[in-house]
Amino acid sequence: MAATSSAAAAAPPPCRLLGSGQAHLRLPPSAAAAAASARRRLLLRCAASGGNGKGGGGDGSGSDPVLEERRRRRQAELAARIASGEFTAQGPAWIAPLAVGLAKLGPPGELAAALLTKVAGGGGPEIPQAVGSMSAVTGQAFFIPLYDLFLTYGGIFRLNFGPKSFLIVSDPAIAKHILRDNSKAYSKGILAEILEFVMGTGLIPADGEIWRVRRRAIVPAMHQKYVTAMISLFGYASDRLCQKLDKAATDGEDVEMESLFSRLTLDVIGKAVFNYDFDSLSYDNGIVEAVYVTLREAEMRSTSPIPTWEIPIWKDISPRQKKVNEALALINKTLDELIDICKRLVEEEDLQFHEEYMNEQDPSILHFLLASGDDVSSKQLRDDLMTMLIAGHETSAAVLTWTFYLLSKYPNVMAKLQDEADTVLGDRLPTIEDVKKLKYTTRVINESLRLYPQPPVLIRRSIEEDMLGGYPIGRGEDIFISVWNLHHCPKHWDGADVFNPERWPLDGPNPNETNQNFSYLPFGGGPRKCVGDMFATFETVVATAMLVRRFDFQMAPGAPPVEMTTGATIHTTEGLKMTVTRRTKPPVIPNLEMKVISDSPENMSTTTSMPVSAASIASGEDQQGQAYNTGGLIVCLLYKEKLSGRSIWTTARLNLQQGFQLAKNVSTDGRVMAGEVITSAIFLSREKFSGHSPEMMASGFSSISSRRLPSMNVDARHRKGQSGRRGARRLAGGILLGPGHVAVDKPDHPDLWFGTEYRPAGR
Ligand code: HEM
């Protein structure tokens, strides 16, 4: 996103950007009382607790009471301090910072400050002023206290922090004026300063002519055909994450979802922007580490009280800065190499450039830019790529993190979501048509972005004089447009703090800043609106649908409380630790005619037709024994019903050779040649291999793995009290060897089950 950008920017530092300082000024008693009572009524549960479950959306299944209490206390304290007038300044805008400066000079200065405030207090209408205090913002994300101040001071007020002063905008009409109607009067200000070291003059920080030229070059690269091509990239990347979660579910390990989402979106954006596979879900290589070092630095700079990176000698000797410089050098080198490779590809290809130009093998934005003949320096190209990498990475990761947090709190939303994913996706990787049908999933993302906007604040600086909300403002004003406040404003939203995807009708338009008249700004608005809005929406919808289709997600027992902090976007303070369990649906057990082959190799070709159903294996001790006696190989077949698209499980008992034979018949796209079977998984009972030579087993396994049998994801549980997963292990080709009993899941045998799921070959 502009996210980072915005984010970093967006997350102006409680310290460096806001400085420090203390105020002591008055709010008229009646106004203070009214504000306090409004706050009591409207007290926002802006904590990560996910709302109170009222309203159409969730059931509000509980948040941490200790956390809630701490939050309530903090807010009540702040509310009381605001009501006491502690934060209220009077007089013209320049007075408070100057008065604070004078007061620091000792008693004479204090006297001068008091006089100044008194004399200046009698002017015309002035922007309401609040004076920030460090103690009000420490220990929580900086945008949270701004919400209470907004309820007191209104849609525009000035916040003075020591010598610094900011205009805080929470009014949709003023936001529209700044972002859209008079956008040329505003630059990115502080944001550009903070991000210069990593984004240079990339699209997010750039202003003026550079921004105009680069935006005109980059926007066309994200055309409809490109975004459609990205859907399969989102699907594959999400599938990789599913595989990781499969393993965690099998191993019974909890997972930290925030970092996994960060990796998922890094993998996506690397391919999408410059065709580089970070594969960060699999490895932590140098370049992945370098990207994270750089991101952390951007966050640190946006929240640090002292800009140590600007101190002449220190910046050259500090180990931290050295590491950052090395990371940047590695990223730049990698980008230069990718640019060179791409240039060669463009020279060699004989595709004609046109509006919807796209190289199928490399649909990246970089490829489009080079093919378009974009006449730009390597440095500018690197700045643009780096900007999009950061913009498209952190925002999407944050959206997924908070969406899954909310889903864990609202199980009824989760159930609806899973229903939609089952119906629309079945076992397939999503297509663009599927994504359009995932309407409820899209509403969940829309609503998640309302409650947790990424970034929570947009930053601007006035470069001309202007009128905001009826108040004149001068040049050089630093402005924070609080998207958080706009999205939580109790006047605009019913149940503002409730996660309620139903507030957005399924058959209505996709909510955006235009149809919500700037009360909803998930992707900004006006000429600087996010260029990746459709990309990001599809990405998060695909990932969400694919994950919830396969897994249930709950907060892990003993997980640290989920609280917000600001980096480039809204982060959790201690991660999002979740327990992931595979969804086990009671299998529909058909009485299908299955071929059961005799145990002896001579009779391999002789097939006996007899009815075999899952129940015949799972329903009793005798039959289980029988299953093992046939040769120890149970093949699970997943049928895809042609008409309904529903999956049906059944099993057949086969001997080893038969199993291998079947595996060989699985084509590389996962379909068994003959019939409707789309995948298979083979489970073996180790003890039962005794009758087969090691050579035969080895050749069987290698033939399976060379066919890339798609049964890579296998869950097996063994009968309670037996060796369990300790004895189970994977072999080549995803075959699970387990010493225990294996049987098909069955509602009346919840402790006996196994399953596998369809994967396209090679995934
Ligand atoms: C859910 C994910 C995303 C969110 C919430 C998001 C949000 C935003 C917002 C709010 C802005 C406006 C910033 C401002 O006005 O200061 C923005 C700008 C931008 N975003 Fe995104 N973004 C997301 C994903 C992406 C992706 C995937 C890309 C690239 C592929 C991207 C590229 C950009 C760029 C280049 C800008 C700057 C546009 C300009 O200044 O002309 N964003 N984003």
From TrEMBL:
One of its GO terms (cellular component) is chloroplast. Its cofactor is heme. The keyword Transport does not apply. PROSITE patterns: CYTOCHROME_P450. GO terms for biological process: xanthophyll biosynthetic process. Residues 1-10 have a biased composition (Low complexity). Pfam families: p450 (PF00067). It comes from the Eukaryota. Residues 1-22, 52-71 are annotated as: Disordered. Residues 52-61 have a biased composition (Gly residues). Heme binds at C530. The keyword Metal-binding applies. One of its GO terms (molecular function) is beta-carotene 3-hydroxylase activity. CDD domains: CYP97. Keywords: Heme, Iron, Membrane, Metal-binding, Transmembrane, Transmembrane helix. Belongs to the cytochrome P450 family. This is Cytochrome P450. It comes from Oryza rufipogon (Brownbeard rice).
